[in-house]
Amino acid sequence: MDVAVIKYNAGNVQSVLYAMERLGANAILTDDWETIKKSDKVIFPGQGEASTAMKYLKERKLDQLIIALDQPFFGICLGLQLLCEHSEEYDTTCLGVFPIRVKKFPPLEKVPHIGWNNLQHLKSPLLEGLNDSAYVYYVHSYYAEVDPRYTIATTHYINDFSALLHRDNYYAMQAHPEKSSEVGETILTNFLNL
Amino acid sequence: MLTKRIIPCLDVKDGRTVKGVNFIQLRDAGDPVELGRIYAEEGADELVYLDITATVEKRKTLVELVTRVAKTVNIPFTVGGGISNVDDVKALLNAGADKISINSAAVKNPRAVDEMAREFGSQCIVVAIDTKNIDGIDFVHTHGGRKPTVLQTREWAREVTDRGAGEILLTSMDHDGVKNGFANEITADLSALLAIPIIASGGAGKMEHFKEVFTAGKADAALAASIFHFKEIPIPELKKYLEREGLSIRR
Predict the structure, then answer these.
(1) Which of A18, A111, A118 minimises the CB distance to B70?
(2) Is the pTM for the entire model greater than 0.90?
(3) Which of A99, B1, B120, B139 is the most buried (most CB within 10 A)?
(4) Separation in Å, CA A149 to CA A104, A123, A145, A186
(5) Which of B47, B78, B74, B1 minimizes the C-alpha distance to B250?
């Protein structure tokens, strides 16, 4: 199983590679079009700021490649937000795979949302074996709104938001599966088995 | 629901844990990676590795340790101890650390907090504050709590938050090692004052102390070392107890 992890200016990509290694997948960090195209699965990691990340992707035309892929694709954290239509973070136009807007949490509780929170309303083969007592690790200040057409799990913090999204071959998760203990490993394993 | 976090802290010197540990299931009780893996399996929500190595080779050994931890452990971990500049932070984050914590270096050069937060994002910058009460006033201390500063704890916590800290790790030197409970009052003050999570440290002796620091102390996370290392309080039991007491805890 060859997994391409898209190389761009995102932080802590190493953890995603190590998680893949632990699950026995052959993951490579790459920004090469051909390598990404012919891999079995693609992971789009992320940590950082939306506008800088989009600028970087556009400069390397990775934005065009990402939306044209047809193998199972998994966006993580900022990767989820970049797959949406628009982010309030520096008013950034994103990739538009999901026609969903990304908003900043209102300061009604501590922001960023840091720590373990549970998944709710789970519905997807990606989440097989899990229920609403599944906790995942979050670190984020922006969230994707809930859209019943694409949201396959929600989490509640200040308000309900999209914990995971799915459309065609595109999957995305706001929390960090690579840091979410057995629950994260279940989700990554389910993704590898798609 | 967002849960309260339980965080074991491991002191490391030259790549080995220094405080004694008596985990019988460990092949190598001095191996910080193996110990971290066991804690993760037991349900720890995060780990903190505090490096107290004082040699020129320090950064190299620490980067090696972080790489090994990141390969093995499937929960978030923070690394602290002697980190002073953006290059240190970059090396540790690239090796796989989720967050770094700075303490004395922030006091010496507060702008380092701004620089680190701007370069890597607030979410991975933890500012550790050692506090001690002198004649009724809480002052920041450095060098493992030995050196007093003129900074008052509440003001300093607000300043580092404004400069971009993502979390505060508050250790009360008055409570540390005494096992008489956390410093709930100042922890609650900081939690109310600041819009970022507060990790309380110092004073855990009984399971009740964790309940108190999460309720009266309003802490977002609680950190302890020896009581976990010596199995005085096993993490699974602690989490069951806190859940029974009505706190939001990750199962």
Answers:
(1) A18
(2) yes
(3) B120
(4) 22, 11, 12, 24
(5) B1
Question: Helix, strand, or coil here: B189?
Answer: helix
The continuous run of DSSP H or E covering B137 comes out as strand B137-142
- Provide the β-strand partners of residue A161: A155
CA A95, CA B218: separation in Å to the nearest integer?
40
Q: Which of B3, B75, B123 sits opposite A181 (nearest CB)?
A: B75
The encoded tokens of residue B170 equal 């508050």
Residues A122-161 have pLDDT tens digits of 999 999 999 999 999 999 999 999 999 999 999 999 999 9
Q: Which residue of chain A comes nearest to B45, CA vs CA?
A: A116
Chain A residues near residue B42 by CB distance under 8 angstroms: none
- Exposure class string for A4-15: b at 16+ Cβ within 10 A, else e: bbbbbebbbbbb
Partner-chain contact A110 B220, CB within 8 Å: yes
Q: Which domain holds residue A141?
A: 2-192
Q: Does the annotation mark B162 as catalytic?
A: no
- CATH number of the domain encompassing residue A135: 3.40.50.880
- Catalytic, A77? Answer yes
Q: In this predicted structure, what is the pLDDT of residue B24?
A: 47
Q: What are phi and psi of A109, to 5 degrees?
A: -135, 180
User: Which residues in chain A have Cβ-Cβ distances shorter than 8 Å to B44?
Assistant: none
